[in-house]
Amino acid sequence: MIRSLTGTSLIEYPGKISSIVFISGCNLQCPFCHNPELVRPDMLDEEFRLTHEEIIDQLLEREGFIEAVTITGGEPLLYSGIADLIQRIKLETCLSVKVDTNGTQPRRLKEVVHHTDYVAMDIKSSPSKYLMATGEKAVFSDIRESIDIVKSLPVYEFRTTMVPGIVDHDDVIELLKEIGRVKRYVLQSFHSQKTLSAEFTDMPTYPKGYLEDTVNSIKDMNLAEEVCIRL
Questions:
Q1: Helix, strand, coil percentages, rounded to 5, for the chain
Q2: What three-state secondary structure class fits 196?
Q3: Do residues 69 and 59 make contact, with C-beta atoms less than 8 angstroms apart?
Q4: 183, 229 contact by CB (below 8 A)
Q5: Long-range contact list for 133-142, CB < 8 A, 24+ apart?
Q6: Model's pTM, two decimal places?
Q7: What is the DSSP secondary structure assignment for residue 112, as one 8-state letter?
Q8: Does 44 have pLDDT greater than 60?
Q9: CATH number, domain at 103?
Q10: What is the DSSP letter of 197?
Q11: Of 2, 74, 93, 124, which residue is 20 to 30 A from 83 by alpha carbon distance?
C-alpha cells in the first residue's frame, strides 16, 4: 500500500518543509484526479512498495532538513497499517505529521486524528454534485461525520479543487453554508495534464481571477477564518 516517499515539499504542509508518503488505492473515482496511478490498481507497480522500517529510515536520514511528513494518496485511511505508521513516526522521529483524506473513512480518522498534527480534507463539490464529482462513489452525507471530526481539531484545512463542470463559485458557497464557518479553506487550481478520465485531460481551467472572485465572496460572507488559493 505504501507506494513511495518523495524528498521535500514546501507546499504540502503549511509553514513546514515536509517529505511526502504516498499511499496507493482510493475508494473514489473522481474523473479529474491528477494521480490516476494511485487510484487504479492496474497502474501500480509492486516494486515500489515500502515497509514502515524503510519509511522511518528515510525520514531519519532527512531529519534536520525536513520538519514534517505528509501522508497522502489515493486515500491513506484505507491502509490498515496507517495508525501504526503514524504512531511510529511520532515515536521514532521529531517530525510533525499531516494526513490528507477524502473524508469517507470517519472510523479510521477517529483512530489516527489525535496522533496527527494537521489534517487536510478534500471536499469535492457541493452536496448536490457530490455523486458526479466522485464518480458516483460517494454522497455528501457519507462524509458529514468526518467534517465534524476535522472541525473539532485545533489545526486543519478543507480544500476543494476548482474543476469546470464539477465545481464552480456557487457550489463553493453552497458547500460552506452547509458545513458552517471553517478555520482554513483552500481553493485549488485544477491541473488537467493528467487525469483519471480522458474527458478531463487538457481541459481548460478557470482563470486565476475567477478563483480570486470566489475567495472574495467567501470573505465577504465570513464563511472561513482564512481562505487562500493554491495554484
A1: 40, 25, 35
A2: coil
A3: yes
A4: no
A5: 133/30, 133/163, 133/166, 133/167, 134/28, 134/29, 134/30, 135/28, 135/29, 135/30, 135/31, 135/196, 136/29, 137/27, 137/28, 137/29, 138/27, 138/28, 138/102, 138/104, 140/178, 142/103, 142/104
A6: 0.93
A7: H
A8: no
A9: 3.20.20.70
A10: S
A11: 124
Give the span between the Cα atoms of 54 and 177, in whole angstroms.
Answer: 44
Which grid cell is 48?
515500489
Number of domains making up the chain: 1
Three cell numbers at 179?
458545513
Vertex 97: Cα angle to 99 and 226 (nearest 5)? 65
Domain that holds residue 215: 2-230
The 10s digit of each residue's pLDDT in 106-153 is 999 999 999 999 999 999 999 999 999 999 999 998 899 999 999 999
Kindly report whether the peptide bond that precedes residue 74 is cis, defined as omega within 30 degrees of 0: yes
